[in-house]
Amino acid sequence: MLPTLALLLSCQLLGEVAARGLGLSVPGPVLGLALLIFLLRVAPALAEHLRPTTGVILANLSLMFVPAGVGVIGNLDVLSKDWLALLVILVVSTLLAMLTAVGTFIGVQHLRKGPTP
């Protein structure tokens, strides 16, 4: 379990270092995930070594939301003051994310089928 966690955290750390060091606007964890995907493509057998640990992490993923919940409770004054703006931002960003996902799916589906006669 420790080597797997070390690999996952190392990928995230390298992504963070690259993002900050190169002044990129991409978040470090996203670069770390890209690095992990690259490693899994280069060494597919690595996935089997990661699977047990990542399965446990995913099974307990709900625990990762506890700090976010505590942050919300800690900032109730901000929420009570700006609730309407936050609600609008949440709804609009959710709709944009959903439309982007649908557009990406349709685009990939179109690319896989090729041009239609």
3D structure, described in words:
With 117 residues, this protein is mainly α. The chain has 2 domains: 1-59; 67-117. The protein has 6 helices and no strands. Helix 1 packs across helix 2. The longest helix has 31 residues, at 83-113. The mean pLDDT is 89.
In short:
The chain is mainly α and 117 residues long.
Quick tags:
membrane; LrgA/CidA; extended; CidA/LrgA family protein; cell membrane; mainly alpha; 117 residues; 6 helices
How many DSSP-defined strands?
0
Helix content: over 70%
Query: Unreliable segments (pLDDT under 50, ≥5 consecutive)?
Result: none
Strand content: under 5%
Count of separate DSSP helical elements: 6
Largest sheet data: none
The radius of gyration computed from the alpha-carbon positions, rounded to a whole number of angstroms, is: 19 Å
What count of domains describes the coordinates? 2
Query: What structural class is derived from the secondary structure elements?
Result: mainly alpha
Please tell me the overall pLDDT.
89
Order of helices and strands: HHHHHH
Task: Summarize the helices and strands and which ones pair or pack.
Blueprint (H helix, E strand, L loop, with lengths): L1 H20 L6 H15 L3 H14 L6 H9 L1 H6 L1 H31 L4
Main location: membrane
Membrane topology: Multi-pass membrane protein
Protein name: CidA/LrgA family protein
